[in-house]
Write a structure and sequence with these properties.
By secondary structure, the protein is α/β, with parallel strands linked by helices. The protein contains six helices and six strands; from the N terminus they run E-H-H-E-H-H-E-H-E-E-H-E.
């Protein structure tokens, strides 16, 4: 039940956006996520993209990966969005139960197989009838986002929207 989806910018090799994403994801500069989330939300406000959305769910990292990185970049993007929109963030309802290897050099099919069944929904009754905004940093093939959204589809009355910082 996808309501709407968009990305803030196109990710291309050699672009300035590549540097922003690299610093956010691998350079320890988590604040970039909040800054970009605020820019993105401010830009989208007039389009009514956020209208009716009840809760923001950032794509979860596995606890081991988050321990190594020190933060979840998607959660920091969500924080920026929440600061502008006032929509609450939920980091408890979906857990990443498998620690997958990086998707960076994988084909479309390898990416899909790599993320199959990696997310687990906790307390689905709390999301019944809600409009969920799934937030991620980069949408390449959509495998991770789809895997996350798939664990929500059996929740009664759920509606899903997707917002990413970049699309490849």
């Amino acid at each position: 039940p996808l309501e709407r989806a968009t990305s803030f910018f196109f990710y291309e090799k050699g672009s300035d956006f590549r540097l922003i994403l690299h610093r956010l994801k691998y350079g320890g500069q988590k604040e970039i996520g909040a800054i970009m989330g605020r820019y993105m939300a401010a830009e989208l406000l007039s389009s009514h993209f956020f209208q009716g959305i009840d809760v923001i769910i950032p794509i979860p990292l596995h606890k081991k990966k988050q321990q190594i990185r020190g933060y979840n970049q998607s959660e920091w993007i969500a924080r920026g969005i929440a600061a502008v929109t006032g929509i609450p963030i939920d980091t408890e309802s979906i857990l990443r139960k498998k620690n997958t290897e990086t998707q960076t050099r994988k084909s479309v099919f390898e990416r899909r197989d790599n993320v199959e069944g990696i997310f687990e929904l906790q307390h689905p009754e709390t999301l019944a009838g809600k409009h969920i905004l799934i937030v991620d940093d980069v949408l390449t093939t959509g495998s991770t986002t789809l895997a996350c959204a798939s664990c929500l589809v059996n929740v009664e009355g759920i509606r899903i929207s997707i917002l990413t910082l970049a699309t490849a």
